Amino acid sequence: MHDGSPPILVMSSIPVFTRNLVWAAGQARRPCWVMTPHQGNAWHFYRHVLGVETIDQEMFVRADPSLQRLVCDFCESRGIGAVVAGDTRCSRLLLRMAPMLPPGVQCFPMCEPELFEQLYDKWRFATLLEELSLPGPRTMLVRCVEDLERCEIKPPVIVKPTQGEAGLGIETASTLDELRRIVEARADLEENPIVVQSYIPGTDIDLSLLADQGRCVAWTIQQRAENGAMRFLDRPDVLELGEELVRRTGYHGVMHLDLRIDDRDGSVVFIESNPRFWGSLCYSVWSGVNFLDLGLRLIEGEDVGRKFNSVDTECPYLAVTRRSLPRALIGGWLAPRQLSEAQRESWRFHHRLGGGSVGDWLRQTIRTP
Fold first, then answer.
1. What architecture (CATH level 2) is domain 112-135+200-315?
2. Are the C-beta atoms of 229 and 267 separated by less than 8 Å?
3. With 0-12 CB in 10 A as exposed, 13-18 as middle and 19+ as buried, what is 360?
4. Residues 135, 241: contact at Cβ < 8 Å?
5. Tell me, what's the pLDDT at 326?
6. DSSP 161-200
7. Phi, psi for residue 23 in degrees, rounded to 5
């Protein structure tokens, strides 16, 4: 395992985040415990997974105060060296309990709670961009239908909840009538307001990063390729925007920024920020930028920025699939030729005999009608 270091505790209530962090820990040869509501996952049987503590999902949803004590007791009894949170819910939990962690247990790099909420909330993030004079779509907050009377943003527009993930609740309106119908259909606007944003014609581009007290020390810039692979790019203009946001907010930790390239003039604008890990984390890890390991090295005192090298490559899905299963059954040594060395190591991690990815694929296949 990783230099004899103590195990880490991964907390996550969303399966894809849990799986990606377990994969990242395994590729970094870091032993881990996992705290999650989800049982029966094939990654339970990875060699580096020491065990799984199953927590009721409602405890995460309600942010049950007893969960904080449970986590602290668990860290003491299992000799945990660091705690890392995957999704938004667990990130908020870890931010609250970080000062309570037992001596010797470190918190994965994270920003201050107030900044976390400012970046995560779509209205507050839009307001922050305006304050910092950073580019973003025109945005207004809507708490009732009457707010539309003062809407100066002309359709087409994007309508989205102020807080949410995975694209839930996002709609597009091409006319004012369509926008009004969307708003009228939302019955709980007072408690759950929405934002209306001008639609930016163009293409999406994402910046993932690790920051050390306001300084970007590792990053990847990605776009989905037409063949389904993830393309990592060298885009100084995108990186500069991310670095400016990180510097001026003093951000600390991992963050995933959604941006868009405007077809009209080629400019790049911020769309959303996620001050936590992200669903496509595995592609960065597979291509040699293991944000989990880099963040742990950071709290261990290493200057990760000094050794960091960005990547410019294309990465296919490297876990076991129906097509790659035969290669897994012969030990994973027969990797596709076009992979980089980092990707070949990732391929071998997933396709080795007895690897948990084979079980992952079988479970997904059996569950799929």
1. 2-Layer Sandwich (3.30)
2. no
3. buried
4. yes
5. 79
6. ESS-STTTT-EEESSHHHHHHHHHT-TTTTTS-EEEEE--
7. -60, -45
